[in-house]
Structure formats: structure tokens, C-alpha cells
Amino acid sequence: MESRVLKPILAVYVVAFILFLYGPFFVLTILSFQQGPDGGPQFPITEWSTYWYRQIFGLTPPSRIAPLPVGEALIRSLVLAFMTMVTSTVLGVMSAQAFRRKFRGSTFVFYLIVLGMMVPGVLTGLGTSLLANNVIGITRHWYTTAFATHVAYTFPFAFLVMLAILNRFDGSVEEASWSLGVTPWTTFRKVTFPLIFPGVLSAMLFAFTLSLDEFPRSLFAAGGSEDQTLPLAIYGTFSVEIHPNIFAFGVLTTLFSFALLSVYGILMGLSVRRARKMAMQEDIT
Amino acid sequence: MTDATDAIAVPNRRGSSWLILPGIIWMALFMVLPILMICYVSFWTQTTFNISSTPTLASWKQFFASDTYTGALWTTVRIWLIVLFTTFAIGYPTALFVGLFVKSKTLSTVLLVICVIPFWTSFLIRVLAWRPMLGKEGAINIILMKLHIISHPIEVLLFTELSVIIGMTQIYCVFMVGPIAFMLGRIDRNIIEAARDLGAGFGRIFWKIIFPLSLPGVIVGAIFVSVMVLGEFATSGALSGRKVNLLGNIIVTQVGSLKWAMASVTGVILTVVMGMVIAAFLRIVDLKQEL
User: Fold this and answer.
1) What is the ipTM score, two decimals?
2) What is the pTM (predicted TM-score) of this model?
């Protein structure tokens, strides 16, 4: 009765909500096609053009507006995200594996790890740079201090994903393997790991994307301009005048994210299909 | 079985305890130690360009004596409470639709994915995109003028506290929608049916059944939003034209001018606020049990 009235109202509301979520992105996409190099980052569009896209790839003649300093920063960010992804996924799988048995202080350790995703980046970033500067006396770099703080942030996500996967994991296949005399390490490699692989993929995706877009930690824990990651390069343009090139770049990074998501989707689909195939083979034999 | 006998009975089998060590060490070194370091440095002596480990309370006194700093503390708390409320108010109806009203699992997954897609744009660019939305000649003013709802552009939309709140609400409301929709999806529909059969109206069903059962989701969402808003500085910096200073903004400017001691004091205060908020929320719901 009520739901017949309420449901359409809520449906309209959800559409409005989605428009609210996407509004800025629509505006950003439209403005990225602003005429260049004189068109500003606001309405109206003086003339539609792909100038700002060409400028990012260095295809336009030099103008008074400097191109975004993103080339090297992008490579640094990708390498950093990759390092962070591998490290936090390994740590996440190990810790979640340990959590399959109750051990003394497990609740404390759980909160210690989960706290990593809650503590703001400003704090871990500031603390790490204080440690590096004033106690250890090392120079901060994106691949040392910033990397350490990135992992302290993404590892909890990987851990929670793996914990959720292993909670639903049927341990009897492992026991079967052990009782046949297979060593625990081989059992993990040949039995456990293939079964938890979808979870591992999700953990990797989480860690990679979080690190790629991570800004406050890098701001404090990475060093000078030769250490700029992508978000830092974008942040650098905040203080000076904004041009539509930043919007064009935003559209491009979003497309890149979609490509990444598609790769994840394909890998996920493949691993699910392989698992189904193996299950079918078992049925036959 | 106790831990000790268990370890002897099944040596080296699934999840030996040593596996947890690298994780503990990493978090201790790169999360706990840095925060302790902030507490320690907040008592250091600050000179113009340098800092020495001679203990002093000077920075602490300076913080509480200055209107700029204490003001930032109150601004942070105020903006946090407002954004917490707006994300909840805007997010809950969406979660209600996605988690409870949509019958097909596929459709609710699709809706959630649609909500998550904007996160694939870089955070900073998402913040920046609000400028051409809210500005005097921005999209919202243009649309409202075209519709003849207003005759003059609204100027309070950009570079005010309002723009910070709008920006943060949009960026963080999905973190409210997700957990609430998840909890609503787990509600046993038979309970609602039973209540309806017994003659309860929707309002009664909502307040007596649906809302209480979704509360853990609200709390988890509130924790997400709180920790992110409290540690913010980029949105407030970019959308307020430096008029709204949060604790995070103070830390960034202090570090920028090499005032490490003052940055640390602000950091400790932020940690305390954050700790109190998280502890309060965790008293209401046990996070580990909800997994």
C-alpha cells in the first residue's frame, strides 16, 4: 500500500541523488572541451575544441599556459601504486591467514590493523616525516617514506577483504591435502591460493587504486619536486590559476580507471570460469 | 582449547601465528610510531627555522591562546557535525531504495556500482570540479537563471563555508549509502511482512523495525565519514578560498612554514578528537561482529 506511493518517490529521489553525484563530472567533461588556450575553466563554452587534450600530450604549440607537469609524476605514481599493491596484498593475505586461528590478543591486533584505514593521512604523513627528518635523519622520498605510509593505509583494506574471503573458506580441502602428506606451503600454493584468488584480486585492486589517488600521505611523506606523485602535481596547480587542462586530465584518468576496472573484471571472470570448469571436471571423473 | 595446546597439536598448519608479525611490525613502525612521534614533538622547542628536543609547553600554550587555532578546532567540529548530518540525510533514502525497495539483486548492485563510479576520478579533480559548478557564473547559477527561479546569481555558493559543505557532502555521502544499504539488504523480509499483516503502518514498521536494524550500517557509515571529514584539508582549501580553516589546514600551513612543533600540537588535538569520535561510535556497534 504505502510502498506503492513511496517507491516511485524514492526512485525519483535516487535519480536526483545520482545527478548530484555526477553533476561535477558532467561539468568537468563539458569544460574540458573548452576552446584553448584562451578559454577559461568556466561557462560559457566559447568554442568546442580538443585543445586541452592535445596540450596534455604535447601536441600543441607552446603558449602562455604551461602544460601540466604530469609525465614523470604519472610514472612515479604507477610504480608506487604497484609496489604498494604487492606489499599490502602479501601482508593482507598473511595476516588474514593468521587470523583463521584464535590467538592471544587477536582483537587488539585486529583493531591495530583496521586503525590504519581510519587514521587520517595528515597524521601518519606528518609523523613519518617528523621521524625521517628529526630522528633517523634520512631524506624523504616517494619510494621510501611515502611508500611506507601508503602500505600502512592500504594493507588494512587488503586484510579485511582477505578476512571476509577466508571466513567463508572451507578448510576441509586443506586438511585433505595435509593428510596426504603435502607440506603446508605447497598446500597453500596449490590448494588455498587458487581458491582465494578472486579475493586476492579484489585486495590488489583496492590497494592499487587507493595508493594511486592517495594525496595527504604523499604530501607530507614524499620529498621535494623531484618526488612529485600525480596527486601532488595536481595539487600544485591549485595554488596557481586553474585551466581546463586539469579537467581534460581528469577525464583521461577516469577513462584509465575504467580500463583498469575492465582488466579486473576480465581477470575475475576468467578465474570464476576456471573454477567452474574444474568443478565440472570433478563431476565427470 | 587454549592457545598453547592448540599450537602444539597442529604445528605449522593453517595460519601459524608468526604470519601476523610482519603486519604488526609494519603498523607499529609506520602508524603507531609516527603518531607517538607527533605527541613527542609537540613538546619540542621551536625557534624561527629550527626545532630542538628541549621540552617545553610553549606550543601548547600558543595553540590555546590563539583564536586562529582554537577557531580551527571549532570549525572542524562544526563542519564535521554538519557534513555527518547532510551525508546521513541525503544518503539514507537512497540506501533505503537500494537496500530494501529494489527487489532484484542485480538492480541494487548496478545502482551501487553507479554510485561508486565517480570515485574513479581523482579526488582532487573531483573537488576542483565544484568550482565551475558553484561559481557566480557556474552551472547551478546558469541553470537557475535560465529557469527564471532567480534573477541574480547566488554568490554565497562558492568560496564560503557552504561550498565546503556541499563539496564534502557529495564526496562522502556514498560512504554512508554503502553500509546502510548493506544492512538494509540483510533484513529478513518476513519480519516486515509479519508486521504488516498485524496492521502496522509503514511509519511504525520503519521506526520499530527497519531503522533499528539498519543502525549498525549508519554507525559504520558515520565512522567512515567522520574520519575522512576530520582529516580533511584539500576540500576546505580549494572551495573556501582559504576562508575555512580546519585543523588539517593548520597542519599543512604550519609544516609549510617549518613550524613542526605547532603542526604537531594540532596533530595531537586532531588525534584526540578522532579517538573520541571513533571510540564513541564503537561503543554503539561492535565492528568486528558486523563483518
Assistant:
1) 0.86
2) 0.86
